[in-house]
């Protein structure tokens, strides 16, 4: 929840006490870095060790058998998808769904031929803006059904570990974009299995116990729109409610403005091709990538999740 200035002042001593709690949570539950598992445990063991304590880990052999790992070159994707229209997020600076000046700004959602998007990623064509396929509405099944057979549409042992095998409730998303595309710090209510197919994803993570030190402020929502000359305007939605969002860049935090963030301790990890990050619900994440990185994510609503839809405006 975003607080006013007076509430913020009043909460400061409470936050200081909570710093002790966050330190204890870290000492008791988390290691300095995100642990690697090089073999799959049983679903029950995975539930006990990782899901129940809400701890992230990187699993090295979970997706090595997926045909996508060998097949999904940009040339292959071009050949399969051709000029089919797909939704691409376009921003001037690589930040979609992020604070810009006094607004929470969402990307321009452009429907463009996939081959034209690849021309940009492969630098055959230079356009203003940063382009990222990043739509979280099961776009792999919805917009890229030609690719679904190259991945496992459900990971049965994980569904069992998460208790969703009887009632599968997940979104299957496809991500591909430029290295300048960055996902700003946020958290989601669902469990996330983040599978990297090619390239690398760089995650900065905060456990939920760091929440007291992570600032939220209220912003009017807006959307980027590219003009004919290639510049961007910000279209403000005057009728929509303000959105609570994190104004802080965890890679370069303004500690003068947000001094409490000094109590938070991020974990950083790189997830490489063939690896899967188990990103538990409510963990804050900030994500960067190598150029042309391709990923597939399972966003899984469990009994504990409030919603499986992308609930960005949350706090
Ligand atoms: O890969 C990214 O850029 C962001 C991923 C993310 O935020 C998510 O899966 O919830």
Topology:
Layout: H1 5-29, E1 36-37, H2 43-51, E2 57-59, H3 68-71, H4 74-81, E3 85-91, E4 95-96, E5 98-100, E6 103-106, E7 108-113, H5 114-121, E8 130-133, H6 139-143, H7 156-162, E9 170-177, E10 182-186, E11 191-198, E12 200-206, E13 217-219, E14 221-226, E15 232-236, E16 243-245, E17 267-272, E18 276-279, E19 284-289, E20 293-300
Parallel strand pairs: 1-2, 4-10, 6-14
Antiparallel strand pairs: 2-18, 3-7, 3-8, 5-6, 8-9, 9-20, 10-19, 11-18, 11-20, 12-17, 12-19, 13-16, 14-15
Bound molecules: 2-oxoglutaric acid.
2-oxoglutaric acid (AKG) binds at residues 134, 175, 183, 188, 192, 201, 285, 287, 295, 297.
Please give a handful of descriptors for the protein shown.
315 residues; alpha+beta; five-stranded mixed sheet; binds 2-oxoglutaric acid
Biggest sheet strand line-up:
1-2-18-11-20-9-8-3-7
Small molecules (ligands, ions, cofactors) in the structure: 2-oxoglutaric acid
Order of helices and strands: HEHEHHEEEEEHEHHEEEEEEEEEEEE
Mean of all residue-level pLDDT scores: 91
Q: What class do helices, strands and sheet pairing give?
A: alpha+beta
How many individual helices? 7
**What is the CATH topology descriptor of one domain?**
Jelly Rolls
CATH C-level of one domain: Mainly Beta
**Rg to the nearest angstrom?**
20 Å
The parts where pLDDT drops under 50 for at least 5 residues are 306-314
Question: Could you tell me how far the N terminus lies from the C terminus, measured between alpha carbons in angstroms?
Answer: 5 Å
Largest sheet: 9 strands, mixed
Helix content: 10-25%
What is the 3D form?
globular
Architecture of one domain, CATH level 2? Sandwich
The H-level CATH homologous superfamily of one domain, spelled out, is: Jelly Rolls
**Binned strand content:** 25-35%
* Counted beta strands: 20
